[in-house]
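Interim report, section 4.2 (structural modelling).
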Amino acid sequence: GAVVSQHPSWVICKSGTSVKIECRSLDFQATTMFWYRQFPKQSLMLMATSNEGSKATYEQGVEKDKFLINHASLTLSTLTVTSAHPEDSSFYICSGGPSSYNSPLHFGNGTRLTVT
Amino acid sequence: DAKTTQPPSMDCAEGRAANLPCNHSTISGNEYVYWYRQIHSQGPQYIIHGLKNNETNEMASLIITEDRKSSTLILPHATLRDTAVYYCIVRAAGSGGSNYKLTFGKGTLLTVNP
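Predicted structure of the assembly:
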């Protein structure tokens, strides 16, 4: 099946700094990738849709200036959490898949962000 | 996308079959049923998906009722490593874009007991 690689798997940063998370599709080209966030004991919540070569689409309530998404190639999407605060501490997960009509999405192993 | 309903939790004995139900009574004709699972602190893992026929792969079987309003994921011989949250998700067929997204509910926590 399709493989999605996410890096780093965990990161600790100080309040006010920025953190970049990378999501790569290893064996397929992804024109669209998705970024999710998961708080403890909760389900995954979609944050944004990352579109190759164009602007990302953000879900309601997600600040686009805080969560910067770049999808410059068909195999790489990045999420940058800018000016991170402790409430941004969460599990961030990306996903993607071959763009055929019923292909499943595949997920990275997630990034555990802790903001101190 | 149609909404799904799953029991919050289930238990299963190791070595026995685990049958996880899912209701999707408002499913549309072009919507597929997908199953994923999430083991603690990992990304979701794709298991299986289907439209109207029963499906089987090396991980599981998917049984979809004739009216497509419900389905059952079957793990034929559950092991301790199958303990996870299982998500049943309905998604329309499409060629990509934002319609390609998966919307997660709360899922079923399956605990496999020794």
